[in-house]
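Internal tracking record. Fields below are filled automatically when a chain is submitted to the structure queue. Please do not edit lines marked as system-generated. If the sequence contains nonstandard residues, flag them in the REMARKS field before resubmitting.
Queue: standard
Priority: normal
Entity type: single polypeptide chain
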Amino acid sequence: MKTLTLSAFENSLASISENGRNKTYLLAVSGGADSMVLLHLMKELGYDFQAAHVNYRLRGEDSDLDQKTTEDFCKKYSVPFHLYTVSDAETKPSGSVQLWARALRYAFFRKIMNDNQLDFLMTAHHLNDQLETFIINLSRGSGIRGLSGIPQSDNGILRPLLQFPKEEIYRYAKEKQVPFREDFSNRKNDYLRNEIRNQIVPLLIGTNPNFLENFQTSLSLLSDSRQVLESKLEEIADGMITFSDENILLNKSLFSGQSLFVQSEILRKYEFLCSKEIEKITKAENGKIFFSNKYRLLVDHDTLVISEKNSLVKKESTQDVTYFHVGNISENEIFNFQNNEFHLKMQLTDCATPLKDKNEWLFDFEKLNFPLRIRKGNEKDLIFPIGMIGKKKLSKFFRDEKIPILAREKIWLLCNGYDEVLGVIPFRQDRRYAADSATNAFLKISIQIKNEF
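SYSTEM-GENERATED OUTPUT FOLLOWS
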């Protein structure tokens, strides 16, 4: 078992922070033994750091005493101290308090770091935390990525105590008379992590006096294996991925020939995590769209086109054709597309709203094939006009609607991914993809003509 000393801690920090003596740090301090020991170690070693504490006011007087413990220590040793106290006006979540608290404190920490130009955030995670996280990820089937453990350095966050067990932290606190507070709510088994901490971990450690040391060795081997595996996966991905503007182009045939594990690891980077969804992607027909939290995946014949959803309406133009697709469509959000002649406003909703006039069209979103396309018409185009029986060639439609020849040159068609006409802008919607009584998701398109024909 690794002994926690000043020199051992400094060696651990040096291994994850190059030129650590010249860096600045923000310590996340809760008042518990782990973070108070971290605070004491950094003070004893004379690093340039500040401390931050969040009082969530969830445990009454205990929360205030946690704050007092951290604040008094920082005042005693002249450590710059930042406090965030949750006010009565701030709404507590009805769901996961832990996720709410985590989001709140990390937003607070980022603000302090930006305001004070600090280099790293430092937390007091230790070896027992690693074991708890390993068991949680094992129960969730997270694969080698999750089983490799909490990284010592990740996205500007340093965890120099990860090599040391909780027992050593308590020993150091007692030996150095470091003040700290015990959070007795951690003894309740109302959260999965608490249940693992209080019931499962003690049993595992009791099976072997060297259990934690052996676990750390296994974790290190898993981490090394992951690095080798990720290098090989990157080599495989490079053979099937190309880039175009803001899009990632993935060869569908090559991708489909890989194992589900390889497919999952490649798409994991774009937050497609569900194996069932990945199987659907490999079998999807042309024009099918899939969404993750941040990305959109479009099946375009033998190419999987992946793009960030912050490019909500993307267009590229030639002389006669403008293509566009809508990325992050979510309920009640509005997207706009315009050129010199008209302005389209698109809105996805789960209920049909009354249409005002012919300039508003309502489609069954699930029937649409993306990317949508806007282009000029040609003699081969057919439209199945809504409100009419049968189909018409575009030229006959123009004649029947008595549209002048010169005006026809300014008219555009809205088409689907198969280049089928969805409507003649702004005159008539095609009925084949129009919303009906069985529609669950409606795409409403409103058209505003800039210059009358």
